[in-house]
Amino acid sequence: MVEQHSCCSCCFSFIITMGLTALFFWLSLRVDQPKFYLESIYVPALNRSLPSTTKNDTVLFKIKFTNPNKDKGIKYDAVRVNISVFLSQNTTRLLSNSTAVAPFYQGRQKKAHKPSSASFVGNLTPAAGMDGKVYFRVDFATAVKYKILFWYTKRHGMWGGANVEINNGGVKVYPKPVRLGNEPPRIVNGAPEFRGGYRALLPLFLVAWIMRTH
Ligand SMILES: *[C@@H]1O[C@H](CO)[C@@H](O)[C@H](O)[C@H]1NC(C)=O
Ligand SMILES: *[C@@H]1O[C@H](CO)[C@@H](O)[C@H](O)[C@H]1NC(C)=O
Ligand SMILES: *[C@@H]1O[C@H](CO)[C@@H](O)[C@H](O)[C@H]1NC(C)=O
Ligand SMILES: *[C@@H]1O[C@H](CO)[C@@H](O)[C@H](O)[C@H]1NC(C)=O
Ligand SMILES: *[C@@H]1O[C@H](CO)[C@@H](O)[C@H](O)[C@H]1NC(C)=O
């Protein structure tokens, strides 16, 4: 009887230990994906303060990378970036495709700001049907590996993009970094400028909607 009891408690503590070990591994293998932002973009060809005779086919931009993981580093492959201009609300013309950022390693909970530039062909007069506004589409693609203790995970492909309105100064209208996420390449009137505040406003919309429907 006594023997059986000790065997049972031994078995029980074995199960607990295995459970905790499994939980520990699960927690340490879980990863949060990095976030990508278009921090700034400057298109001298659209800067109206410059004499229109100076032709400049450069686009200067900066991408921000954030690693949200408390205990995992991230190794990025080369980051490819496509820049396009909207010809209508749902069609774009590719201006440039470039390898914007060379492969790099980012420590845990770090931010990286990587400037880059690309050159394009053709001119950038506002397309008919865009109400005189100029919108760019910026897409990126890369792959990442996470560093867990001393090991790297396998590669995970990542991509995303955003639509950004460019003003007469040749810079983006929305002043804050724009998340390169899963926004479709389609201009919805007024939408891009309000993206940043959308989440904060959501509860208000909900309240307004509930009050309307009651
Ligand atoms: C646009 O051009 C003007 C005139 O050269 C210059 O002062 C300004 O800094 C330029 N804008 C940007 C964002 O560089
Ligand atoms: C284009 O504009 C950028 C940024 O102002 C400048 O660094 C570059 O020299 C210009 N290129 C030409 C050909 O004017
Ligand atoms: C693009 O938008 C036009 C009108 O703005 C619409 O007629 C057309 O079906 C759209 N095309 C696609 C592929 O969504
Ligand atoms: C990338 O751009 C270069 C030069 O503009 C062009 O020759 C090439 O076809 C483009 N590649 C793709 C996949 O669009
Ligand atoms: C850039 O455009 C080319 C041609 O459309 C496409 O094959 C490539 O996947 C695009 N790259 C990115 C980073 O979106």
Descriptive overview:
With 214 residues, the protein is α+β, with helices and mostly antiparallel strands. It has one domain (27-189): Immunoglobulin-like. The protein contains two helices and twelve strands, in the order αββββββββββββα. The strands form two sheets. Strands 3, 4, 5, 6, 8, 9 and 10 form a seven-stranded antiparallel beta sheet that branches. The radius of gyration is 24 Å and the shape is elongated. The structure holds 2-acetamido-2-deoxy-beta-D-glucopyranose (5 copies). Residues 42, 47, 49-50, 169-171 line the site of one 2-acetamido-2-deoxy-beta-D-glucopyranose (NAG).
SSE topology:
Elements: H1 2-29, E1 35-47, E2 58-66, E3 72-76, E4 79-88, E5 91-101, E6 104-106, E7 111-119, E8 134-148, E9 151-152, E10 156-166, E11 169-171, E12 178-179, H2 191-213
Antiparallel strand pairs: 1-2, 1-11, 1-12, 2-7, 3-6, 3-8, 4-5, 4-8, 8-9, 8-10
This protein binds 2-acetamido-2-deoxy-beta-D-glucopyranose (5 copies).
Short note summarizing the structure:
By secondary structure, this protein is an alpha+beta fold. The model is unreliable at 191-200 (pLDDT under 50).
Q: Helix amount, in percent?
A: 10-25%
The CATH architecture category equals Sandwich
What is the terminal-to-terminal distance?
67 Å
Instruction: Indicate the radius of gyration in whole angstroms.
Output: 24 Å
Discrete helix count: 2
Taken as a percent bin, the fraction of beta residues is 35-45%
Q: Biggest β-sheet: count, sense, barrel?
A: 7 strands, antiparallel
Overall shape: it is elongated
Give every kind of bound small molecule, once each.
2-acetamido-2-deoxy-beta-D-glucopyranose
